[in-house]
Amino acid sequence: MILPMMGLLFAAFAAGIVGGIILCVVRSLRRFAPFALVPILAAVGSLSFCWGLAVGLERLFASEQAGRIGFLGGYVLGGLLGASVGAWLAIALTRRLGPPNIPFEADGSAAAQFQR
Question: Model-level pTM?
Fold first, then answer.
């Protein structure tokens, strides 16, 4: 039961890294590159919260049932907290970086490149 849940987190983590690399390489999509932090931080937050909450509640209440509830609750809590921190960081980075420097016109055509 634990391994498929960890596999899902690893897939989200890997998708965030691969997506971030792709967003950095494609010039017209570079402004979206900071948003690759959202799945990465959601996966890391979810994994750390699930283990931390499970161990903490199991030690606090001396009950294996409390540990199970903490384990499942940690996935939800950590995922939401990690995703919100990732989104906040991505928005802050995009504001700091400013508007993208793309040589295309607003309609998506590359006419601006050939007018030189």
Answer: 0.73
